[in-house]
Structure prediction request, 517 residues.
Amino acid sequence: MVEYGRSPVERIRTMQDFSRRGLLKATAAAGAGAVVIPGIAAAAAPGASAATNGPKGPKCKPAKLTGRIVRPNDPGYANASLGWDELFVHYPLVIVYAQETQDVVNALTWARQNDVALRVRSGGHHLEGWSNVDNGIVIDVSELKSVHIDTDSRIATVGAGLNQLEAVTTLAKQDLAVTTGTEGSVGLSGATLGGGFGFLTRYLGMACDSLVGAEIVVPSGVDCAKAIKVDRKNDSDLLWALRGAGNGNFGIVTSLTYKATPLNHVAYLQATWTGLDDLPEIFETYQRTAPFADTRLGTQLEIHRNVILLFGVLAEGSEEEVKEQLEPLLSIDSPDVSVQVGNWGDVYAGFQIPTELEPANWKFFSQFSTEPFPKEAISLVDSFIKDAPTDDSNFFVQAFGGAVRKSEPRGGAAFPHRNALFYSEPGAGWGTRGQSNCDAPLTPKSQAWIAEFSQALRPYVNGAYVNVPNIGQQDWETAYWKSNFDRLRKIKAEYDPHNVFQYEQSIPPATRRHERP
Prediction:
């Protein structure tokens, strides 16, 4: 369900009223015990029910929702039901903010017992809005923020509610690091479980490569749930799947355990070219050098309709070194260049953009490339970016190679795109947060721009990134996971045989005939 032109307050006033009073009464009663909600299966999102459809065995006692509960009649419901991308609007029946693992167990059991659609949410950044659901339960782990770091072994166990900024800065205080994405408000859990890449990818590998364990709540029996610990010795097949399959496919992760790497300092460089005159030369030079540079160097190229930005992070580097490494690019014309050397946590926090200053609505399309773009593809980028709907809209490129290509973690990982030269995505951003009426005419223009841009580039790209889902892609199963998809289906059948965890592009269990959602 997508609505445009309504503020968060207006969204409550215009909610569907199909027996809404009955639904409110039902969820209110859930705080005191289990509730069977008449007709909820018909009202739930198609294909998203938590019904078990036939398992046999002992049943659990009626479950009680625990944690911080938010319902449609609560004052904080509008904000609680709104994700980072305000393009997508949903009206969940109840939102459970877990305070401990048992709250997640209770919520999953309750959803199964009452045949209620469910979704898993950590940072609320799902780029197609699939961490939310109409008339169902959202199990939110964003308040699970425990941290335990063993500095001798460099093992860090953190709650699934940490966002990337919290994770980076916390580890950096101990001069440690794992790979994360660049946007701090994104949930660490969701980013890691889909693979996770950023400035440290070429140095440390994918975020999931540092994942050595997890606690996850999975379905159990007829209508129950249980928490299990996953590592290389226990349920190692599930650990393999969690390294790249994406969030919310097998269960609800409540904590993650990483093997961190020492990192004393970084050199962070930003270069800015005004206008697009140098785009062909910059892009060609970038794709021929950045994926093959010193493995300590992570770079991103961000092309807007009026400016080109280059970002580079050199682990344990100096100002002189990072400039030398990027000299082939910095020698093109005369870009403005700035360099900061310091603790990774301080640098990372310094380049964050406050969420309230970002556009309200976003649309992306993800893709990998194993070969350099020919001149025709670079010309397409140039043409489309000049016609971008807003200044915030951009074409983003992340160099791969280095540690990602060299090796997988012990036990392997479901993330398959290790031979990529670079990752890229066109992204359209528009509208003002909290003012959905603002720039409403840009919505169809932005959607069309993304669709046409991504389609034009199809001959030059391959694969897709599950954390940036391509809703219109027909072969999404192999685009995300290549040949790993069949193994993922078998693991799904083992841990969620009745497909309790399902959404628009979720992994179906192998025991069922695979049908597209």
In short: Residues 182 and 351 are 9 Å apart (CA to CA). DSSP finds 18 helices and 19 strands in the chain. Residues 1-48, 513-517 have pLDDT under 50 and may be disordered. The longest helix spans residues 442-457.
